What we know:
The protein is of the alpha+beta class.
Amino acid sequence: xxxxxxxxxxxxxxxxxxxxxxxxxxxxxxxxxxxxxxxxxxxxxxxxxxxxxxxxxxxxxxxxxxxxxxxxxx
Length: 74
């Protein structure tokens, strides 16, 4: 199955300088991959700048979905 997603890469500016890839799927799912440790992490594992980045992208995603819904049913 072909799932549409938006990929974002974020490198933390403070220790331990994690290199993260965020995948926001069109159906609302999210995958956060730690490129250094090569494992998937949860939003609860985020802190500081990476948590702020996640929250801002999630809010933008929700706003876009609401706008699409409004335009669809207008």
